[in-house]
Design a protein that fits this description.
- The chain is an alpha/beta fold.
- The chain has 2 domains: about 30 residues; about 210 residues, Glycoside hydrolase/deacetylase (TIM Barrel), CATH 3.20.20.370.
- The protein is about 50% helix and about 10% strand.
- It is built from 10 helices and 8 strands.
- Strands 2, 3, 4, 7 and 8 form a 5-stranded parallel sheet that branches. Strands 1-6-5 form a 3-stranded parallel sheet.
- Strand 5, helix 7 and strand 6 form a beta-alpha-beta unit.
- Helix 3 packs parallel to helix 9 and helix 6 runs parallel beside helix 7.
- The radius of gyration is 20 Å and the shape is globular.
- Bound molecules: zinc ion.
- Zinc ion (ZN) binds next to loops.
Length: about 250
């Protein structure tokens, strides 16, 4: 009798742990119920299956007049390539920075014009935000963005359709590689440690040069890149990462 109860209790604890694990898994893996289908259809990417030790560093919300030039210097010094998901409204104020990014071999991604919350916005509004930004980047740098990263990671069926019509892929990120670097008070060491601890080939790492904590993000790259280089990792743009995908 005693044993039976203990078994049952153990079973319940085990079931509880499984449920807890599943809930966390569900939260992390399915920000939108159709995410996996979009990934299968190649309308959205979060990670690339590759045997090569390559990852994509991506920087959002810039360009920032102070942190972005400092970041470009760190990347240049370490011969690392990155993808910048810039805002159209900030890009048009800093055309020289956009040109510098392109000339240094970095990729420009579209992160909307104004970083508005797309939830509840009309198709026309969303389309205008995407088109305007792609036009600005094309004019300034001669690069038509291949990827769109929605502000705040917002996803909807309509938005993915519109993005696809515009010839853009949703450039999401690998969920383990969100260090929340944008939060004020997060230190460079914390950001670098988070990324190092979770690193694996083919990941897309989300970071923010355009947030108020951007100076720490830049400092984190100065720590992180040489350390990961020692482990054999190299840093490529998102388009380059896709080229490294294992052929089935
Ligand atoms: Zn953003």
């Amino acid at each position: 009798m005693f044993l039976v109860i203990r078994k049952r209790t153990a079973g319940m604890i085990f079931a509880g742990i499984c449920f807890f694990g599943l809930s966390i898994g569900a939260y992390n893996f399915a920000l939108h119920p159709n995410m996996h289908n979009w990934e299968k259809q190649k309308l959205l990417i979060r990670q690339v299956k590759t045997d090569q030790k390559a990852v994509a560093l991506t920087f959002d919300d810039g360009p920032d007049p102070v942190n972005t030039p400092a970041l470009l210097e760190v990347l240049g010094k370490n011969k690392a390539k990155a993808t910048f998901f810039v805002l159209g409204s900030r890009a048009e104020k800093q055309p020289d920075l956009i040109k510098k990014m392109a000339e240094a071999g970095h990729e420009l991604g579209n992160h909307s014009y104004s970083h508005a919350d797309f939830n509840g916005k009309s198709d026309e509004f969303i389309l205008e935000e995407i088109k305007k930004t792609s036009d600005i980047l094309c004019q300034l740098a001669g690069q038509t963005p291949a990827f769109f990263r929605p502000p705040g990671g917002y996803l909807s069926y309509a938005m993915v359709d519109l993005t696809n019509q515009e010839g853009l892929t949703i450039g999401y990120w690998t969920w383990q590689q969100d260090s929340k670097d944008w939060r004020d008070g997060t230190t460079a060491a914390q950001i670098a440690d988070h990324i190092k601890k979770n690193i694996a080939p083919g990941q897309i790492i989300v970071l923010h040069d355009g947030a108020s904590n951007g100076a720490q993000t830049v400092k984190a790259m100065d720590i992180l890149i040489p350390e990961l280089n020692k482990q054999g990792y190299h840093f490529v743009t998102m388009s380059e990462l896709l080229e490294l995908e294992n052929k089935e």
